[in-house]
Amino acid sequence: MKKIDLLYLIVVIFYLISGLIKWDMTTIFACVLSLIFMVITNVIGKKIGFGNGIKILIYVFILSTEILGEIYHFYVDVWWFDIVMHTYFAFIVSYVGLYLIRYFNIKESIYFVILFIFSLAMMTESVWEIFEFSMDRVIGTDMQKDTVIRNINSTYLSENIYVDKVMVNDIDFMDRYGGYLDIGLYDTIGDMICTVVGSFMFIVIMKKRLNC
After folding, report:
1. Separation between Cα atoms, residue 119 and residue 113, nearest integer Å
2. Is 129 in the same domain as 168?
């Protein structure tokens, strides 16, 4: 076992023991997922030849998502955390895309490599957003976060409407929230924009290594 794997295990097991002592199901579930993701990372990594660099990036992402995001509630308490995670994840997926091209020994121009990497990142993000939508509709979670907005641009209504009063169950949303809530569209599109940014960051930073 490599030092990076051992360090990762130590961190996860520490929080797992803490969760078991407190019987905190959120912590326990986050740690179990972290262990599963570690196994998946190593299985795929051995298959396509992950180096230490990408493994560190993946482990940092998993720990940030599960420990900071779930256990310490960064997704709720830190407004920019989800933005950073989606951008970072796109960077990692793009990195994996480069490994896939090398694994399958694809000899194409740098433009094909860039297109493949970018497409893989966007496809992965699209699948994730479909998963979030499905979870919200089937199980009733709130993975696609709401956004407070005040204007409606509507072809159906044939005008731009400024919302000054919204009543839901005798609650004035304008007074309480400063607007009405969209159903997650802003969150979804924002996440996809982060994916575009993260993938392009990888392409710019790793440009010299894209000539496969």
Report:
1. 10
2. no
Overall number of domains in the chain = 2
What is the chain's Cα-based Rg? 21
Helices (H) and strands (E) in the chain, counts: 8, 6
- Per-residue pLDDT, 154: 67
Decide: residue 121, CB within 10 A, 0-12 exposed, 13-18 middle, 19+ buried: buried
* Entry pTM: 0.86
Q: How far apart are the first and last CA of the chain?
A: 30
User: What average pLDDT does the segment 170-174 reach?
Assistant: 73
For 15, residues 6+ apart whose C-beta sits below 8 A from its C-beta are: 27, 30, 31, 67, 71
Residue tagged 């740098």 (tokens): 110
Domain shared by 202 and 100, yes or no? yes
- pLDDT for residue 92 is more than 90: yes
Inform me whether the pLDDT recorded for 155 exceeds 80.
Answer: no
Same-domain status, 106 and 75: yes
Domain with 49, as residue range(s), is 3-144+190-209
DSSP letters of 149-171?
E-EEEETTTTEEEE----EETTE
Residues shown for the chain = 212
Q: What are phi and psi of 48, to 5 degrees?
A: -110, 5
Element (H, E) at 172: strand 171-172
Question: Do 160 and 198 fall within a single domain?
Answer: no
